[in-house]
Specification:
This protein has five helices and five strands, in the order E-E-E-H-H-E-H-E-H-H. With 124 residues, the protein is of the alpha+beta class. The chain has a three-stranded antiparallel beta sheet, with no helix packed on it. A two-stranded parallel ribbon has the order 4-5. It is globular.
């Protein structure tokens, strides 16, 4: 790690870090990434209903900027329920449109074609 900054708690934190010979800068704003894989729809539906996992729509309504990308289309409605913001399935990224996904031209935006659903690039 190199470089430091103060996150407001009086403790210095690294402003940059290196992994696999690549240097990264920390984002200037908070970032949360939630990765859920290998679980049944029933688990997700029950967990959301019991407020056991973060509800993206509630975070967006609280003023947070939220974007949701799922690998499979079948999970889109579960994760983006009531979400007003960017939400699309990676398997159909090339077909995403401003309505209903709140984003379009994804391949041009990231500079890569939509990857095959179970390929390595789909999980990067």
């Amino acid at each position: 790690m190199s470089g430091t900054s103060d996150h407001g708690l009086g403790e210095p934190i690294a402003a940059t870090f290196s992994v696999n010979d690549r240097c990264y800068s920390l984002p200037t704003r908070p970032v949360v990434v939630i990765c859920a894989d290998g679980c049944g729809d029933e688990y997700l539906s029950t967990s959301l209903a019991q407020v056991r996992i973060p509800h993206l729509a509630a975070a967006a309504k609280a003023g947070r900027k939220v974007a949701m990308v799922t690998t499979k289309n079948k999970l889109l409605s579960i994760f983006s329920h009531d979400l007003e913001g960017i939400a699309f399935p990676l398997e159909f990224a090339s077909q995403a449109k401003e309505s209903p996904h709140a984003i379009g031209n994804i391949e041009a935006l990231v500079g890569l074609p939509t990857p095959a659903i179970y390929s390595g690039p789909a999980f990067l």
